[in-house]
Amino acid sequence: MRSEFARLSKDTPGIGKALVAFLAEAYKFKELSDYSVDEGANVTVNEATGAITNAERFLEVVAAYLERED
Prior knowledge:
single chain; 70 residues; mainly alpha; 74% helix
């Protein structure tokens, strides 16, 4: 999904590389929460806060793009 989103959004104004990078980071957190049980599997409060902020921004940008398409 990440590579397809990157491909589809590469020429779309307002959807920058930061949002594509966010998907990779979010997937890392998903893998940690699903599969990691060792001590290195911790997510800091700052990382979690940043992920939430980036997720909100991602949703805002995608929703605005979809509204333009209607």
